[in-house]
Amino acid sequence: MRIISANLNGIRSATTKGFFNWLASQNADVIGVQELKAQEADLTPEHTPAGFHAYFHYAEKKGYSGVGLYCRHKPDEVITGLDIADIDAEGRYLEVRFGNLSVVSLYLPSGSSSKERQDVKFSFLERFWPRLNALRESGRDVIIMGDWNIAHHEIDLKNWKGNLKNSGFLPEERAWMTQLLNSGWVDTWRTLYPEIPGYTWWSNRGQAYAKDVGWRIDYQIATPAIAATATAASIYKDEKFSDHAPLIVDYDYPLAL
Prior knowledge:
Layout: E1 2-7, H1 11-16, H2 19-23, E2 30-34, E3 53-57, E4 67-71, E5 77-80, H3 85-88, E6 93-98, E7 101-107, H4 115-137, E8 141-147, H5 171-182, E9 186-187, H6 188-192, E10 201-202, E11 214-215, E12 218-222, H7 224-227, E13 230-235, E14 247-251
Parallel strand pairs: 1-2, 7-8
Antiparallel strand pairs: 1-14, 2-4, 3-4, 5-6, 6-7, 8-12, 9-12, 10-11, 13-14
């Protein structure tokens, strides 16, 4: 089973840069996308890969946020949002279920633009925690993929010393991620590759991409049983569809049909 996560920084922009052409060759089972920056009326058939069922959670604000899931097989159930009005207005959570498997596309808020948005981010982390616990304790196999907007450890960003006071690497955010992983969730990339940074996002400022001055903020976080079946992961950088790169993880796991 191949799962791909990609923050598109605008689905229409990523389409013009060849994202769906590349996706056609990837043999993925489920693809999670984040930061659609589009509404339902903006999407056309070219925004859904052939042979996939498409589901979206749009933000109410135009040109902002939003998540989606493309599924090769039709899921048994689709869960849109967290039933928290202000969070759901930003289109940040979408879950599909196949038998005992849940796959989530998540776009956690950034706090980099202002103190107000950082407060929104902290509020999201606090209110998302009960759902994380419920998923973990449900007995289901769960993969939560997407842009978590947190670099956990020093290995997860190039310039960690210069970012100790910046959103995405704040002590409170990192402590939350530590608590998450100590509670029973598994970071698949870091488990597979303890010593490989695995950057997935680069600032558009300077020569960050060319010099690989990146951050690892896109994750596939999973419950232990399915995380243990992860056999390989990669980050696709041969083409640039967005300021993020797609994260691909292969699991030796039978997708229930």
